[in-house]
Amino acid sequence: MVSLEMLKEHETVRTAPVSEAEALVDVRGLSLWYGKKQALYDISVRFPRNQVTAIIGPSGCGKSTLLRSLNRMNDLVPGVRVEGEVLYEGVNIYDPRVDPVAVRRHIGMVFQKPNPFPKTIFENVAFGLRLMGVKGSELEDRVVEALKRAALWNEVQDRFKKESGLRLSGGQQQRLCIARAIAVEPPLLLMDEPTSALDPIATQAIEDLIQELKTRYTVVIVTHNMQQAARVSDRTLFMHLGVLVEEGPTEVLFTKPKHPYTEAYITGRFG
Amino acid sequence: MNRTLSSPSPEAFGTDPWKTRIDRTFARALVLPLVLAIGLLVLLLGDTLYRSVSVQVVRADEGPGRTYPFGLAATEVLRQELLARGYTEEEARSLLQDPTERRVLFLQNRVELMWNTQEGPFRYVVTGLRDERVADFSLLEGLRRWEELKAGLGEGERLVLNPWLDQSFLTRTPSRSPLTAGIGVAIWGTIWVLSLALLIAIPVGIGTAILLEEYLREGTLNRILEVNLRNLAGVPSIVYGLLGLAIFVREMGLGPTILSAALTLGLLGIPVIVVTARESLRAVPESLRQAAFALGATRRQVVFRVVVPAALPGMVTGVILSAARLIGEAAPLLLVGAAAYVPFYPTGPLSEYTVIPVQIYLWVSMNIPEFARVAAAGILVMLLVLSGLYFLALYLRNRFRREW
């Protein structure tokens, strides 16, 4: 019922757009191809500081692709091609002079399935810090700090130096991955469906954590769970077939969607 | 149609006795090869063990052919033997104190612990180079005729129950006489050749695996190499021997030395190490690499801080299994010059050498029947070393087992 041609004719519907000053990340006319297949079509959107922005949409709509182009993780996919700009603090991260490795050190990422390294809890969190050359007591302090901020400290404080990260439960593993990502204090934290592999109680813990994290970090979260987007986010982006259909404050997008496709999706008529 | 479920019985589900029976028969038939294999192995091991023990009557070249009580030091046994051969106290002491004379004495005489002798169980005998075998019986026959043999002992003759695999066998040099032959030189040759070969094969093999698996992930070169490596791992080892003979021994002029043997075995080991290391690198989940990249690691940091440590147990197991294969290789080493008779220990990469399987091969082809006993003892040494390596591999695999 929704064809790409019909979607491309529409401008993105924007409610209460984010001003340039508020934005930490400013995506301008981003298009992306995997080989010959185009995955993103001319996407322009701003992600405001210290807020949670959710990206929703049906499977294969390009949510994760958009997220991964914010920290150049897509560069690792063979045959990928990007056009347009992603300004991070005013700097285009796709500028040829920018080192993608350095970009990723500024931007944390949490994946769909918990993926702790087969090392101790301490070494997991210390990984990013060690890459930055942090050593000794500072390293230890920052690891503990990150575990506390990820609400994992109370559960692991007596064993975090000995026990493997793989021995934790799924929800704890995901919080460990969050601790690992925030240990290097990245201003921006990307989350790619962080609760899709977790049970409801672990999901609740992660969602509470996201609320706390936004006081210090800017969060972009991809989710296929609309209730979750409504619960945790301040702004929401709705994507379909690689096109950004509508964006706006979460309560507006979920209560008074302006684009017919958005309405159809959030009322469950397709997806 | 008056079937009801009012009286449920197991048959209500329906049975098919024939299918069940075929299933069971099939499952049993699958066990058969396993039973056969284990049976054959036990038979082989038992036979080798049996052949490595014999009852002998030996005529001593000098001296009365007497035995010495268990618990004495080897030097003390030799001193008493010298006295028994007619040396004076003075002469014996000076011979044993002079290091050169002492070494010659130990080369010419083998101090062995026998399980049983005409003078009682567990006693030492001293076997000289020119001692002569009078008779050699298999274990059962020898024990049956023990008393008869004991009664028939002549002057200077001794009757012993000889375990050929004993401490002095492990430390002795080869000899033309089976009574004094030992496997010590071959053990050291094996240690030298194997460690040098692994020193070559491990860095090259692991490095190639990392390059192919982590850097050139998809590409024509990778696919071509993949096929070729698997084929190389299956090439008969004698072909590597020919290559080693042509290149290392002749072309590079290394001659029949430990170094050329190690280079040949190194080549032989590389494909196996590459294939197993690649498998274990491939088993590391992609999500771990993604996580490390997302934390701002460079490709080198991802490979050496995350992927290789995670793949290490598999790599180590692969190396050990490949080492176990290399230890047993005789064919290529016969070509590149493992010598038949090396009476001295290797001193460096350029010395002559022999290795355990080559030594066993040579013993088996000797025409003195007792060399079969020596060969059986050598095979046991080989099996012990091999099972040691397999247990090490097993231990490492369990020690580092991970769940992803």
From TrEMBL, chain A:
Keywords: ATP-binding, Nucleotide-binding, Transport. It comes from the Bacteria. Gene3D superfamilies: P-loop containing nucleotide triphosphate hydrolases. Residues 13-266 form the ABC transporter domain. It holds the Pfam family ABC_tran. The keyword rRNA-binding does not apply. PANTHER family: ABC TRANSPORTER I FAMILY MEMBER 17. This is Phosphate ABC transporter ATP-binding protein. The gene is pstB.
From TrEMBL, chain B:
GO terms for biological process: phosphate ion transmembrane transport. It is found in: Cell membrane. InterPro entries: MetI-like, MetI-like_sf, Phosphate_PstA. Residues 187-392 form the ABC transmembrane type-1 domain. The keyword Chloroplast does not apply. Keywords: Cell membrane, Membrane, Transmembrane, Transmembrane helix, Transport. GO terms for cellular component: plasma membrane. It comes from the Bacteria. Its main location: membrane. This is Phosphate transport system permease protein PstA. It comes from Thermus brockianus. The lineage of its organism: Bacteria, Thermotogati, Deinococcota, Deinococci, Thermales.
